Amino acid sequence: MHSRFTQQELPACKPILTPELVMATFIFLGITFIPIGLSHLAASDHVVELIDRYDEDCIPTDKFNPSAAHHNRVGYIQDVKTDKTCVRTLTVPKKMKHPIFVYYQLDDFYQNHRRFVKSRNDEQYRNPLADHRTGNCEPESLNNENKPIVPCGLIAWSLFNDTFTLSRNNIALPINQKDIAWESDKTHKFGSNVYPKNFQSRGLIGGAKLNESIPLNQQEDLLVWMRTAALPSFRKLYGRIETDLEANENINVVIQNNYNTYSFNGKKKFVISTTTWIGGKNDFLGRVYITVGGVCLLIAITYIIFYLVKPRPLGDPSYLSWNRIPASN
Ligand SMILES: *[C@@H]1O[C@H](CO)[C@@H](O)[C@H](O)[C@H]1NC(C)=O
């Protein structure tokens, strides 16, 4: 068969990697990546962030007796009768422009565990006629009377239930909790006519209760929680503060410390943060850009030095092994 294809004669780009081309490419990568990296770092530096770990401080000290700490803390948090209010005062480090995002952060909470991630039934969450669809939801599929739990599964069951109320100078500082979930979750993934049923009514209480008169797609804290985090340390959006905060202002945070991370030594943090075009505070991407750009420049410089000190003509046939003078042994 003789064709241009079998003879490998199809038109193709056959670049010749001359030293000039290689050096120019590395220099170009270096001088574009380093400024990109610097601008990321500058943006990240602009973000004002306030983090307050409260899980340990919000347990009364008499429950914190180290010898029996584990038992006491879990007992305290599971006791529905004790008041779990905890007041914290935070000082704003720098002026924070609105919108200011309010998050809770959990550390050492494995929302990414395989059996946890799969413990849900999206058909049930979406379709009002699919109450009975509780596949994958064990052990949170049926209540004690064999009625289906809506929303079923361990993710929904473990919904975060600490609450935060803010004030400054004794004036309430409202947190807007609307529009914190993904739009597609509200319009597609969760139904506007699916209502919670038999939720948290079976055995151990895992977390927050849901209002049975509000459809799932409007329970935005649930939607945020149900987008499981990929890493064991994660933040979830709680709401937004829609006024500016001035430097050195004191913010009063009243926490209802309900959520049990004590039985597995997880940590709980309250976070408020501004954002810029790169999102929240994150130096990683900027550092990666600068490192890659720096390595490219370094390679380019090495090439240039070799090129100047020990140049050799391109395509010189005397370098071919069969043209070399054989070694003298
Ligand atoms: C909050 O969740 C914990 C489990 O993490 C549960 O023991 C507690 O009863 C819940 N409290 C409220 C008020 O929902």
UniProtKB/TrEMBL annotation:
The keyword Methyltransferase does not apply. Its main location: membrane. The chain crosses the membrane at residues 21-43, 288-309. Keywords: Membrane, Transmembrane, Transmembrane helix. The keyword Membrane applies. It is found in: Membrane. Belongs to the CDC50/LEM3 family. This is ALA-interacting subunit. It comes from Rehmannia glutinosa.
